[in-house]
Amino acid sequence: MSKKITLSKFVFDRLSKHFKDFTETQNKLLNDTEMVPAAERKTYQEIFMQYLQHLERLLKEAQITDSEDNSLPCVTFGSVVELENLENKRINKIFVTYPTANPPVDKKIKVSLTSYNSPVGKALFLKKPGDTVEVNAPGGKFKYRIKSVDLMIS
Question: What is the pTM of this model?
Answer without folding.
Answer: 0.84
